[in-house]
Design brief:
globular; single chain; 10 strands; Rossmann fold; binds D-glutamic acid; 6-stranded parallel β-sheet
């Protein structure tokens, strides 16, 4: 029979991983974590009432991020994954300072692999307006390798187009060509998809960028980082059963389930709506 300490350890390891995003885009990260760690219990928080974050002020994004972090801590999560590039760019350092459990954002994992994959050190980054303005990606790339030359372009139309289902066809093609023209004279060999929604149009981005450009999907890299961090700290769930998934939204968005099921390639259950005024910071 298992001792009381063993049972307590088991229960502690079974605590969920909290993953959050401004809306549904972070499901690209959630889905990769689900693939990499099928036995982990997962909570997804989508701030569907206040999305998009990408064109808001850094101050407000930081505030929203801290509110969600508090909510997830109250759910007794064992780790927090900031699946939103914009929140990571603005508030990752603050979150890391504030909480005791491990926290992973999407920027460091993407920068580490981009630096490894790039042969010329000329790396492009695409993201929302405030991710680009924050300079977080170039800063982190330089921290990995000071010789890297980073080039950025904000692509604000990609998020609404993906949310409206324009993930293929002439419109998204034209928009991609217009945005990616920025890199024509930069001679990049690697491009980071610095936004949750972009993995869903990675084929188009890859085609428009051309065969000489490697595309870095931060969702995949983040899931690997989650697995490594939990493993290194002895925090992996010991259970062999498929983990439970719970979804919290701040608004019952119609798009969430429709697009969410496409992202996750499965039915979504256990969805609860949290009132924004219940999570506000005082
Ligand atoms: N989740 C955001 C990101 O990765 C994109 C959507 C938004 O602007 O809120 O930057």
């Amino acid at each position: 029979m298992a001792s009381a300490t063993e049972n307590k350890d088991k229960a502690s390891l079974a605590r969920p991983i909290g993953v959050f995003d401004s809306g549904l885009g972070g499901l690209t990260v959630f889905s990769e974590i689900q693939k990499a760690l099928p036995c982990e219990n997962l909570i997804y928080f989508g701030d569907t009432a206040r999305v998009p974050y990408g064109a808001k002020s850094p101050k407000i994004v930081e505030r929203y991020t801290m509110e969600i972090v508090n909510f997830l801590e109250a759910c007794d999560v064992k780790m927090i994954v900031i699946a939103c590039n914009t929140s990571t760019a603005i508030a990752y350092k603050k979150v890391k300072k504030r909480i005791k459990i491990p926290v992973i954002g999407v920027i460091d994992p993407a920068c580490a692999i981009a630096s490894e994959m790039s042969e010329t050190g000329r790396i492009g980054i695409i993201g929302t307006k405030i991710t680009v303005q924050s300079g977080a990606y170039p800063e982190r790339l330089k921290a990995v390798n000071p010789a890297i030359k980073a080039f950025q372009k904000d692509c604000p139309l990609f998020v609404p187009l993906v949310e409206e289902g324009f993930t293929e066809g002439e419109i998204i093609d034209l928009v991609a060509k217009k945005y990616l023209r920025e890199f024509d004279d930069k001679d990049i060999d690697t491009l980071i998809l610095g936004c949750t929604h972009y993995p869903l149009i990675s084929d188009i981005i890859a085609r428009v960028s051309g065969p000489g450009v490697k595309i870095i999907n931060s969702a995949e890299q983040t899931a690997m980082a989650v697995k490594e961090t939990l493993g290194a700290r002895g925090l992996l769930n010991k259970s062999k059963k498929e983990g439970k998934r719970r979804f919290y939204l701040t608004d019952a968005s119609v798009n969430f389930i429709r697009i969410g099921e496409k992202f996750l390639k499965r039915k979504m259950q256990n969805i609860k709506v949290v009132k924004v005024w219940d999570i506000l910071l005082q």
